[in-house]
Amino acid sequence: MKVAMIGTGYVGLVSGAGFSEFGIDVVCVDKDAGKIERLNRGDIPFFEPGLEGLVATNVKAGRLTFTTDLAAAVAGADAVFIAVGTPSRRGDGYADLSFVYGAAGEIAAALDGYTVVVTKSTVPVGTGDEVEKIIRQARPDADFDVVSNPEFLREGSAINDFMRPDRVVLGTDSTRARDLMGQVYRPLYLIETPILFTSRRTAELIKYAANTFLATKITFINEIADLCELVGADVQDVAKGIGLDGRIGSKYLHAGPGYGGSCFPKDTLALIRTAQDAGSPLRIVETVAGINEVRKKSMARRVVEACGGSVKGKTIAVLGLTFKPNTDDMRDSISLVILPDLQDQGAAIRAFDPEGMEEAKSLLEGVAWCENAYDATLGADALVIITEWNEFRALDLVRIKSLMKAPVMVDLRNIYNPDEMAAAGFRYTCIGRPGAG
User: Fold this and answer.
1) Are 146 and 82 within 8 A, CB to CB?
2) Helix (H), strand (E) at residue 319
3) CA 234, CA 225: separation in Å to the nearest integer?
4) Which member of 12, 55, 149, 156 lies 3.0 to 4.6 Å from 326 by CB, making a disulfide possible if both were Cys?
5) DSSP classification of residue 388
6) pLDDT of 164 above 90
7) CATH number of the domain that 62 lies in?
8) Which residues are designated catalytic?
9) Beta-sheet strands, E only, within 173-253
């Protein structure tokens, strides 16, 4: 079996490498010749644990190749996956589908024999219908089906998510397409992974519904954290107490500064627009998106309050810049809100992130980039933990305190214990716990 993967971004490259590990011949296609050249050298354009080795193994085995020649890749493929970006359209929150529709047009011109065209990109309900229309108008003679196959990859654990997913969702009413996609995912069927066949529109909606539900859980526990601070409760115990309920579950109940990243912000907005256009507005999701924006903007205020009401002329050490650990992704990271706000109020920033600094340098100005966590804290009036990288979980507090001007820590991820921080001589601010401010 042969597969063409259109797009070598996060979803395309991880999925292409994953399918090749299944024993399928995969050709990954991208218009960016520089990116393809890098991939052919074994240079992975983003950080994802385990991906470099997975790519190298399958390139060496001859199952994974990279090219800019879409026509050649599509002509020999049984299935063609569209895995291009669908960012929020500037100004209105709708998903920008120009890359998807552009890929559909190019695929149409290259189809040769029966082919399943699969939308792997996150797309609004009805996008598959439009993809089918584009191909059909361009190639009335073509023999093809369009299937929706949303991805559920978490940055930082994407390889495991692909190889051992909670489920695979396939949206199609075509028996022929269903049989072919069953062969594509046969290794997962053999390990009894749930494979859910639905209509195409249902599959498209499942992806958005899943992400907005998780965003809602995050926002819910963040609001509970604010209440905990006012009534003297501990949000971590609250989260544990409700998470042990099998109907609720413990995942995504970690209080913090708000959600960010490449998926939740854009997907909540896109679903809001879809629902509004359909005449069935999602008031809960609209509220979630609004609360999250307000929360992100409120985090700098916590730092200012921890510094006595002003950061003018003070040095703030920042540990963690990416939106989550185990990725170099800076998209919609809380750091892009907090750092400029503190700078606008007169603070100098010293920052360190294990993987995200190269990307951060193009997005943040006037920051002193440091070699490690201890370098960042040198001479700082306060330390702010934004991203919970493992290497920040067991800092040498005695050393940190000796390096800082003042022993002030603002822990936006609750990775330290308030009592232990007090015993170590720190003025400690956290989220939703006694001793939070």
Assistant:
1) no
2) strand 315-319
3) 8
4) 156
5) -
6) yes
7) 3.40.50.720
8) 263
9) 195-198
Please report, for residues 75, 123, 202, the alpha-carbon distance to residue 138 in angstroms, rounded to integers and kept in the order given.
Answer: 16, 21, 26
Q: Is the pLDDT of residue 435 over 70?
A: no
The answer as to whether 225 is a domain residue is no
Which among 97, 113, 96 is positioned nearest to 105, based on CA atoms?
97
Residues 6+ apart with CB under 8 A from 374: 396, 399, 400, 403
Q: What is the H or E stretch that residue 337 is in?
A: helix 335-344
HSE value, Cβ hemisphere, 13 Å, CA-based, for 405: 10
> Residue 72: which domain range?
2-198
Structure tokens at 42: 């074994």
Q: Are 310 and 344 in contact (CB under 8 A)?
A: no
Written as six digits, the tokens of 52 are 């470099």
| 210 in any annotated domain | no
Q: What angle do CA 257, 434, 413 make, to 5 degrees?
A: 25
238: left (phi over 0), alpha (psi -120 to 50) or beta: alpha
User: Based on the domain organization, do 69 and 183 belong to the same domain?
Assistant: yes
Q: Which residues of 37-52 are buried (b: 16+ CB within 10 A; e: fewer)?
A: eebeeeebeebbeebe
pLDDT, residue 92, reads: 86
Measured between alpha carbons, how far is 207 from 11 in angstroms, rounded to an integer?
14
Q: Assess if residue 262 is contained within a domain.
A: no
Mapping DSSP to helix (H, G, I), strand (E, B) and coil, where does residue 308 land?
A: coil
Inter-CA distances, 37 with 45, 302, 307, Å: 11, 45, 48
Distance in angstroms (rounded) separating the CA atoms of residues 184 and 23? 10
pTM of the complete model? 0.93
- The answer, yes or no, to whether residue 436 has pLDDT greater than 90, is no
What secondary structure letter does DSSP report for 381? S
Q: 264 φ, ψ to 5°?
A: -55, -50
User: Cα separations (Å) of 98 from 29, 36, 170, 200, 418?
Assistant: 17, 21, 23, 20, 49
Average pLDDT over residues 148-156: 96
- Beta-carbon contacts of residue 305 (< 8 Å; ≥ 6 apart): 429, 437
Q: Is 415 exposed, middle or buried (0-12, 13-18, 19+ CB in 10 A)?
A: middle
Helix, coil or strand: residue 217: helix
Please count the structural domains in the chain.
Answer: 2
Distance CA 432, CA 228 (A): 5
Position 281, amino acid: P
Check residue 95 and report its DSSP letter: B
| Domain-embedded: residue 91 | yes
